[in-house]
Amino acid sequence: MKADVIKLDGGTAGSVELSEDLFGLEPRADILHRVVRWQRNNAQAGTHKVKTRSETSYSTKKIYRQKGTGGARHGDRNAPIFRKGGIYKGPTPRSHGHDLPKKFRKLGLRHALSAKAAAGELVVIDTAALDTPKTSALAKQVRELGWKRALIIDGASVDENFAKAARNIEGLDVLPTMGANVYDILKRDILVITKAGVEALEARLK
């Protein structure tokens, strides 16, 4: 499939051939869901923690005699039934991550690219490079192109001036090819890929 290539100033720069294996698949929501869930679970800190009855700060002295009170039998104030007592079976630090085969992760990335192409939210640009790291100049170009929430994927590395200019623009993310992932692609309204990025993605996902 062919796609038109534009420049940052809005001019045309010919066309590029996009691989059907990457951009022409029928997007499957179940595959995208599994990959996004794997990403978000791996990113979860898992540092939640509560105190058990052995960690709360009350005395362990028996609070009243065992028999004759007419009430329930208790050993100390750390029991979960009391206010500020220990928590029973509460969360403890753990990893929320789980495994997902590398082939499936690659398949998810292909379906994410295809989903953007099918929705008409894929833009191919010639290069993502600037002579000077001027945020105002890049912000004007992005505004004129109509990119409100966009992810730009470049080749093996991102131009330093372009990265510096883009990092202060709200809603604009820039990633090298190896940083391309399903969650970030689906989160943005527009996916912008440079010609170098297209070649690198095809090499990575072949």
Could you name the CATH homologous superfamily of the largest domain?
Answer: Ribosomal protein L4/L1
Briefly note the structural class of the backbone.
alpha/beta
Order of secondary-structure elements: EEHHHEHEHEHEH
Strand fraction: 5-15%
The low-pLDDT segments are: none
The structural domain count equals 2
Count all strands and give the number.
6
- Which CATH class of the largest domain? Alpha Beta
CATH architecture of the largest domain, by name, is 3-Layer(aba) Sandwich
- Helix % is 25-40%
| Major beta-sheet overview | 6 strands, mixed
Summarize the structure.
The chain is an alpha/beta fold and 206 residues long.
Please tell me about this protein's structure.
The chain has two domains: 154 residues, Ribosomal Protein L4, Chain: A, CATH 3.40.1370.10; 41 residues, no CATH class. The protein has a six-stranded mixed β-sheet with strand order 2-1-3-6-4-5. The radius of gyration is 27 Å and the shape is elongated. β4, α5 and β5 form a beta-alpha-beta unit. The model has no long low-confidence stretch (mean pLDDT 94). The protein has 206 residues and is of the alpha/beta class. The protein is built from seven helices and six strands; from the N terminus they run ββαααβαβαβαβα. The longest helix has 17 residues.
Please describe the structure with a list of short key phrases separated by commas or semicolons.
about 210 residues; alpha/beta; Ribosomal Protein L4, Chain: A; 6-stranded mixed sheet; elongated
